[in-house]
Amino acid sequence: MTPTNTERAAAAALDWMADQDAPESAIAAHEAGAAASAESARRWVRRLLDEQDAGGAWDVDLMRTAIALSTIHELREAASLREQDPGIGRGLEWLSGRRGVAGAWTDGCSPARHERGRHPLEHQPVVV
């Protein structure tokens, strides 16, 4: 690929990302130096925090909460935000509160765990 083709491909990718309704589009715009990226990143931080439940999680889901907090961290950098919203602290507390809870981290799913009722998530069949 020539430098011209690479530049065109990068510009096309950025244009495509800018049209997406996703926080990653604000992060990509910031990394590409787009002028409106900070404003977009601030909107996404607010939107994600608005989706947080009162207990500090996102859908009472470990992975969704970890991803939301990680995304907010990247968006805060893109928006040059220095103040810390209390929701971030609640999310971190909820996440760290899962330590030691059976099935909450990487213990996995097993029939014995389901029998004891210690698995926090309902077992969902995998549809192929």
Describe the structure.
With 128 residues, the protein is an all-alpha fold. Helix content is 58%, strand content 0%. It is built from 6 helices and no strands. It has helices at 3-18, 23-31, 37-50, 62-79, 86-96, 111-116. Helix 2 runs antiparallel to helix 3. The chain is elongated, with a radius of gyration of 19 Å.
Task: Give the arrangement of secondary structure elements.
Elements lengths: L2 H16 L4 H9 L5 H14 L11 H18 L6 H11 L14 H6 L12
Q: Give the N-to-C terminal Cα separation.
A: 38 Å
Please state roughly what percent of the residues sit in beta strands, choosing from under 5%, 5-15%, 15-25%, 25-35%, 35-45% or over 45%.
Answer: under 5%
Structural class: mainly alpha
Q: Write down the secondary-structure element order.
A: HHHHHH
Poorly predicted runs of 5 or more residues: 122-128
Radius of gyration: 19 Å
- By DSSP (H or I, 4+ residues per run), the number of helices equals 6
Q: What does the average pLDDT come to?
A: 81
Shape: elongated
The total beta strand count reads 0
Helix content: 55-70%
Largest pleated sheet: none
